[in-house]
């Protein structure tokens, strides 16, 4: 989404609402977009980045370890000279291949990246522990960003095969401002659930990197801008007026839910938000007869890192905005396709055709046009 950033505040709230293109008659679709303040590269704090890279046998493909190497090379060229990169790899065991090195020594960093080789099975826990050990040596630098970045296909088959064994460690380091972001590479075995859980506990972000274009988007265009935290313990509350709204449904985000009574409870952890970060949520709702133009309110509550972590709130009214924007209609098509993928039995061809037509009509970029190709591929496979 290309929601505009705030002019003076930490966050801008965007609301788009109108008749749902896929719901039952009378259903309204509401898109809520939150956009964080952007920070120019020259204003960003220096960054200490510790990469933890999976070099197990399952990564031995060009769209896995090969893509990891190309992604890191792209990132090196975007960082500032006083940023630092360290690299840990793990297969059956974990080892250091590059101690934290200033980007001024880019050739040394690029050489270390190029020399990474596949080795052994997967011990993700050992890799993360060694990565955190490296990052902790840099944590005395209070004026720097300190982040561990995991690059893997998410397949762990030695030691802890789920996240439970390492989650407490990740949470502990996050409390000391060493955050964890995760990036998944490869199509087949990629464990999206595992990688998301790790990043969630580490107060970081996660993303899937499927090809070099996605790598450029994430490592060349987005990552350096979002490294710096602008707000801590951010929580978003959407409050629909029961006098106006008969019922509603959130599309996605089930695992990020916060109980209403915990919204203003500072003891309940929220999410850390990086500069320029954006979040989009979709709701479907049914209005009561005679509903007004005000259906509810969306509020974001956060601790302002530039104001002694003081709690602040921003809010906006939810109501009809006329015709839904192209951006919202495209996202609606993506959400509907995800619903079909989750439960495709009994879904007719006409519903898929409707998704495809809407996606093609409202796509605003080459990348969004690729989604139409994905829908076509799904329809072709499904028809066989």
TrEMBL record:
Pfam families: VWA, YfbK_C. Coiled coil: none annotated. Residues 48-227 form the VWFA domain. InterPro entries: CLCR, VWF_A, vWFA_dom_sf, YfbK_C. This is DUF3520 domain-containing protein.
């Amino acid at each position: 989404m290309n929601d505009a950033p705030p002019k003076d505040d930490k966050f801008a709230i965007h609301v788009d609402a109108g008749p749902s293109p896929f719901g039952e008659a009378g259903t309204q679709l509401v898109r809520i977009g939150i956009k964080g303040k952007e920070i120019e590269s020259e204003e960003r704090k220096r960054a200490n980045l510790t990469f933890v890279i999976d070099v197990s046998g399952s990564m031995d493909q060009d769209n896995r370890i090969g893509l990891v190497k190309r992604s890191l090379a792209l990132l090196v060229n975007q960082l500032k000279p006083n940023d630092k990169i360290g690299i840990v790899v793990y297969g059956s065991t974990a080892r250091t291949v590059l101690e934290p090195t200033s980007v001024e020594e880019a050739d040394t960093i690029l050489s270390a990246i190029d020399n990474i080789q596949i080795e052994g099975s997967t011990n993700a826990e050992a890799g993360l522990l060694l990565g955190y050990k490296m990052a902790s040596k840099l944590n005395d630098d209070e004026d720097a960003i300190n982040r561990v970045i995991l690059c893997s296909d998410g397949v762990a088959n030695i030691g802890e095969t789920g996240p439970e064994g390492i989650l407490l460690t990740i949470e502990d380091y996050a409390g000391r401002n060493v955050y964890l972001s995760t990036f998944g590479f490869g199509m087949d075995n990629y464990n999206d659930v595992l990688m998301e859980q790790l990043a969630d506990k580490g107060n970081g972000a996660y993303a899937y990197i499927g090809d070099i274009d996605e790598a450029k988007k994430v490592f060349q265009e987005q990552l350096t801008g979002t490294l710096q935290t602008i707000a801590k313990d951010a929580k978003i509350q959407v409050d629909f007026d029961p006098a106006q709204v008969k019922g509603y449904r959130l599309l996605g985000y089930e695992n990020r839910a916060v109980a209403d009574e915990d919204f203003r409870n500072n003891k309940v952890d929220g999410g850390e938000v990086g500069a320029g970060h954006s979040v989009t949520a979709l709701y479907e709702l049914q209005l009561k007869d005679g509903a007004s133009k005000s259906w509810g309110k969306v509020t974001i509550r956060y601790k302002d890192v530039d104001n002694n972590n003081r709690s602040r709130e921003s809010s906006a009214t939810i109501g009809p905005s006329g015709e839904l924007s192209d951006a919202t209609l495209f996202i609606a098509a993506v959400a509907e396709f995800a619903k079909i993928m989750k439960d495709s039995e009994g879904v007719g061809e006409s519903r898929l055709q409707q998704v495809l037509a809407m996606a093609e009509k409202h796509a605003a970029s080459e990348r969004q046009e690729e989604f139409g190709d994905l829908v076509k591929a799904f329809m072709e496979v499904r028809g066989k």
